[in-house]
Design goal:
The chain is 41% helix and 20% strand. By secondary structure, it is α/β, with parallel strands linked by helices.
């Protein structure tokens, strides 16, 4: 088998990474994602789409310096102003050219290596595979207690509202079939859109698999999560989920 056929034996994967004011962590991010790309390339075609969501701290220039020069698998896209997480994910997803799409946090709160078991679950027939720090085998390490508490409680309420046996509803790190993602695109913006998209996928009868993972404290920069706003937003979405969205 030639190299060109070897890396097309399985469906290709587009990795979408939204960034906002993450200049300090860009080099580490690109290096770690690059490790995954190198390991996975013999099995499938890959591309990495990095979306700078209107950063003001030099993230765009840091990306230009960090991504491998002349490697067409790496692309950087830019919003001229901050438009929010869901908009950045949409820009990256629209640019994706391959049948599987994965989302990854820029702050490395989940190691890029988690993409391997996520995409393997798609190979085995899942429609969507999500990282899960709350399922058996998952854990939280070094994260401020309020973030872990909020995620646990929100996921518990989503389970009660939907009757779905999903341990973690709030994790952005997931891989899924591109056609499912586009068919279940959320109406809500920001972090809330991530949970809404999972709810919509479940509502369509998608086969959803959780993969145990460790949620780490971010390696650099500041969290964009605002706790009070997040609580209010999740309560609204939980109520909508009870009504079937």
């Amino acid at each position: 088998m030639t190299a060109s056929t070897a890396n097309s034996a399985r469906p290709g994967l587009s990795i979408v990474v939204p960034l906002y004011d993450e200049a300090g962590g860009v080099a580490d991010l690109v290096a770690r994602v690059g490790d995954f790309v190198a390991a996975e390339s013999p099995r499938r075609e890959l591309e990495v789409i990095l979306v700078d969501d209107g950063s003001r701290d030099g993230t765009w220039d840091a990306l230009g310096a960090a991504i491998p020069a002349g490697d067409p698998r790496w692309r950087r896209l830019r919003h001229d102003q901050n438009r929010g997480l869901t908009a950045a994910l949409r820009t990256g997803t629209d640019a994706a050219r391959l049948p599987f799409v994965a989302w990854l946090d820029a702050d490395l709160s989940y190691e890029p290596a988690i993409l391997a078991p996520l995409v393997a679950a798609l190979d085995e027939g899942a429609d969507l595979a999500t990282a899960s720090c709350h399922m058996r085998g998952g854990r939280i390490a070094g994260v401020p207690w309020i973030r872990g508490w909020l995620s646990r409680q929100a996921s518990r309420l989503y389970r009660l509202a939907t009757g779905r046996r999903v341990a973690t509803f709030t994790c952005m790190v997931r891989a899924q079939r591109r056609e499912l993602l586009l068919a279940t695109w959320p109406e809500r913006q920001g972090f809330l859109g991530v949970t809404e998209q999972l709810l919509r996928a479940l509502g369509r009868g998608a086969v959803v698999v959780e993969v145990p993972a460790t949620l780490h404290a971010r390696r650099s920069g500041r969290s964009k999560l605002r706790v009070a706003r997040a609580i209010r937003a999740h309560l609204g979405l939980i109520a909508a989920a009870r009504r079937g969205l």
